[in-house]
Amino acid sequence: MIEIVPAILPKNYEDLKNKIALVRRVVPLVQIDICDGVFVPSITWPFLSRGDNENFLENNFDEHFRKILNEEEGLPFWEDVDFELDLMVAGAVENFDIYTKLGPKKIIFHLEAVGDLEEFKNFLEGIDTYIKDVIEIGVAISPNEPTEQIFSLVNCIDFVQVMGIDYEGVQGEKFDSKCLDHIKILKEKFPDLIISVDGGVDFDTAPALISTGANRLVAGSAIFNTDDIIGTVERFRNL
Predict the structure, then answer these.
(1) 192-208: b or e for each residue (b if 16 or more CB lie within 10 Å)?
(2) What confidence score (pLDDT) does residue 209 get?
(3) Confidence of residue 173 (pLDDT cuts 50, 70, 90)
(4) How far, in Å, CA of 206 to CA of 215, rounded?
(5) For the packed helices 13-23 and 229-237, what is the interaxial angle rounded to 10 degrees?
(6) What is the CB neighbour count within 10 angstroms for residue 75?
(7) pLDDT confidence band for 168 (50 / 70 / 90)
(8) Were both Cys, which of 13, 168, 175, 237 would link to 200 (CB 3.0–4.6 Å)?
(9) Which helix H or strand E contains 162, and what residues bound it?
């Protein structure tokens, strides 16, 4: 059965909390899309304004984010659901330790945002063993990037997130079929590699994604813009 991961592009903390509440007993894991207005134009929770990578902790953050960092509270409904952080931000590598304080089960880096690939590989190899034991690391690749960029990183990561859209940080965008080429190439070369697909996932695109080799489907608007979330998730799972 395919794994279905609802994606939340949170306007603010209340939006995040409300959407998690809708799926917390439906799925075991939710993806939170974090956008800083730098790597992508969108700004989402925990940022209240455009991010500043050089002075990260001086950013204009939501008060709940600061409380989580200070261990005064956790993410909404953390007792009921695990979280995957999709870091569509500048400075994801530099601020990795800070994002781990949110308590995610998985963290995703975007190739376009990490800079030099060799340096990024060195970073991945140097992640503390304790962190690797509790947090799975994924790398996202956009439709127009060369698949080969992933090859040297496979032994350092737990999964790849193939983007189904080229304009990241939004939901409801048109699906880019070039992502199918990524899936096919990666599965042929690395048959055991776990592949997620995020962006443009709906009932029209899902069958081709699954038949090509996707293991996990990440969907935002296709799940939350429906009157029957439980039924929608089950329909996806049964494709």
Answers:
(1) ebbbbbbbbbbeebbee
(2) 97
(3) low
(4) 11
(5) 60
(6) 22
(7) low
(8) 175
(9) strand 159-163
Query: What's the chain's length in residues?
Result: 239
CA distance 95 to 178: 31
- Residue with the bigger pLDDT between 51 and 125: it is 125
Euclidean distance between CA atoms 118 and 229, whole angstroms: 42
CA dist., res. 198 & res. 215, Å (int): 12
Please tell me the distance from the alpha carbon of residue 16 to that of residue 13, in angstroms, as a whole number: 5
pLDDT in tens, 3-56: 999 999 999 999 999 999 999 999 999 999 999 999 999 999 999 999 888 889
Q: Which of 102, 196, 59 is nearest to 141 (CA)?
A: 196
pLDDT for 53-86, tens place per residue? Answer: 888 988 899 999 999 999 999 999 999 999 999 9
Helix (H) or strand (E) holding 141: strand 136-141
Q: What is the pLDDT of residue 174?
A: 79
Q: Is the dihedral angle over the CA atoms 163, 36, 108, 139 positive or is it negative?
A: positive
